[in-house]
Amino acid sequence: MPVIEITHPLVQHKLGLMRQVDTSTKGFRELAAEIACLLTCEATRDLETEPVTVQGWAGPVEVRRIAGRMITLVPILRAGLGMLEGALDLIPGAKVSVVGLQRDETTHHPRAYYANLVDDLAERTALVLDPMLATGGSLAACCDLLRAAGCRRIKALCLVAAPEGLALMAARHPEVAIHVAAIDRCLNENAYILPGLGDAGDRIFGTR
Ligand code: PRP
Ligand code: URA
């Protein structure tokens, strides 16, 4: 399973700011969107383009454009919404498929409560947006759901991943490439990532 850690200085700098406990809700939200934008750029390096001739200022000129229907963005509710705006900044025309998963606080298993997917999933690459890859249960469940709906190509964009979550994804969805800003140390007894960001959903939405 390809795991691509984005070591770009801007990503590392912004993630460092997100790790600070006193970063405001506004700051955390903005940084999540900015890193999502940079991860989207990396994750779409292999998009196919085709030549097309347009009328330029000095006559016809051959340029390149993205070929065909390519992407659906898949934010996992709720924290994944914090990455959606940043991804849409780069791909403003992308169709969005929304998946709702809630991790049980005791078992840490995800419960699916919502899914509204584009109907031509088989023709698109799904870019799943979820800031935290902790046990990996939520991302794996989202990939199960996308596969069952006909999706053939999935990539995941995460801010922080734990080794435990990467191992689960390698076992259940080895074909899914994971683009991540940092691979952290481990999970704590509540399955939170250390050093991590804390509860990303709460920090993005200002709850708790
Ligand atoms: C968080 C996070 C991921 C999930 C990661 O969501 O946004 O979706 O936990 O944990 P896992 O890898 O162990 O499954 P949560 O269920 O807390 O919901 P929220 O986004 O609504 O806060
Ligand atoms: N969900 C979060 O928001 N943070 C973690 O560290 C783990 C799951």
General description of the model:
This protein has 208 residues and is an alpha/beta fold. It has a single domain, classed as Rossmann fold. 33% of the residues lie in helices and 33% in strands. It is built from six helices and 13 strands. The strands form three sheets. Strands 1, 4, 5, 6, 7, 8, 9, 10 and 11 form a nine-stranded mixed beta sheet that branches. Strands 2-3 form a two-stranded antiparallel sheet. Helix 2 packs across helix 3. The chain starts with a strand and ends with a helix. The structure holds 1-O-pyrophosphono-5-O-phosphono-alpha-D-ribofuranose (PRP) and uracil. One of its GO terms (cellular component) is cytoplasm. This is Uracil phosphoribosyltransferase. Keywords: Allosteric enzyme, Glycosyltransferase, GTP-binding, Magnesium, Nucleotide-binding, Transferase. It is an enzyme of class 2 (transferase).
- Unreliable spans are none
| Helix percent band | 25-40%
Query: Count the strands?
Result: 13
User: Architecture in CATH?
Assistant: 3-Layer(aba) Sandwich
- SS summary, helix count: 6
User: What is the CATH topology classification name?
Assistant: Rossmann fold
* Total individual domains: 1
Give the names of the bound compounds.
1-O-pyrophosphono-5-O-phosphono-alpha-D-ribofuranose, uracil
CATH class: Alpha Beta
Query: What characterizes the major β-sheet?
Result: 9 strands, mixed
Please state the structural category. alpha/beta
Order of helices and strands: EHHEEEHEEEEEHEHEEEH
Keywords: Allosteric enzyme, Glycosyltransferase, GTP-binding, Magnesium, Nucleotide-binding, Transferase
Function: Catalyzes the conversion of uracil and 5-phospho-alpha-D-ribose 1-diphosphate (PRPP) to UMP and diphosphate.
GO cellular component, one term: cytoplasm
EC number: 2.4.2.9
